[in-house]
Amino acid sequence: MNLEVKQKILQKIKDYDRIILFRHVRPDGDCMGATKGMKELLLASFPKKEVLVIEQDIPAYLEFMGTDDAPIDKTLYADALGIVLDTGSAARISNKNYDRCKELIKIDHHIPLENYGDLQWVEEDRSSCCEMIVDFYETFRDELALNSAAATHLYTGMVTDSGRFKYSGVNGNTMRAAATLLDVGVDTDILYARLYLEAYEYLKFKAYVYNKMQMTENGVAYLFIDKAMQEQFNLTLEQASACVGTMDSIRGCISWMVFIENGDAEGSIRVRLRSRFVHINTIAEKYHGGGHACASGATVYSQEEMESLLRDTDALVKEYKETHEDWL
């Protein structure tokens, strides 16, 4: 079935002279890598085509991946093929001109929350959307060309979305895809330095996190990062979100999360949920979010909603521990 869909996607790409790539709001490494990697892949394969990524929201830690294309006249979308990458729902597409495209393709690895687009290729068991793009190249490597620029973007997405290949979605196909990219040419020394070296001030913030994090009765670690804390440590939203990873190695804790005060008029609080073994995406979906089984995002709008989300997660973890013996 997926082969048939991929064949249709390739044919659509061949049919259009202008292709516009889209990603989700507040982009992470995977959707940045997927859009930029797909652009380089298509330009290398079809140099006469116009391939654009018309986005401007690039987080500071991914600025090394380069800028996006300048906006074009909205009328130019009408004869373009749109490809949306790494985005589960249409509401989360960053560039709202996506619906002006003549045809729209969805390529994604999230648990589907809604169907959109004329063609959909969704594999929720993939570790990243970038892994799917490598698979697309491998399927049609006699017709496509992969250069080092594309390989570096795609490898960036694979590394960041798989937690450096340690999350449960990683399998043999993931590593074979990574090998394909490394064989083409990826300077991992430079890439890892750009991704993982941290400022002295941010390391002091991580120490603060370990002092301030709390734990529920059944083992859900959590932290609330208010605006004052963000200002004290000069944190971007991306840096605040990333600190959820500092709580991923607590013995007895199989779910952890961070609440981040946005400071907007709605009083919204961004939530980053992570887990081991137990699936927490249903919790995220209940609180205006969604994502993967063990890595999701949500939004709450009050202290009461925060506490409710924590209670729901704590109850889920309690039930899992009582019914499973393999949670360590």
The figure for the number of domains is 2
The CATH architecture of the largest domain can be given as Alpha-Beta Complex
Mean pLDDT: 93
**Unreliably modeled segments:** none
The helix/strand series, from N terminus to C terminus, equals: HEHEEEEHHHHHEEHHEEHEEH
Cα gyration radius (Å)? 20 Å
Find the CATH topology of the largest domain: inorganic pyrophosphatase (n-terminal core)
User: What is the helix tally?
Assistant: 11
Straight-line distance between termini: 38 Å
Structural class: alpha/beta
**What percentage of residues falls in helices of 4 or more residues?**
25-40%
Number of strands: 11
Major beta sheet, strand line-up: 6-7-8-9-11-10
CATH class of the largest domain: Alpha Beta
CATH homology group of the largest domain = inorganic pyrophosphatase (n-terminal core)
Strand content: 15-25%
Largest sheet: 6 strands, mixed
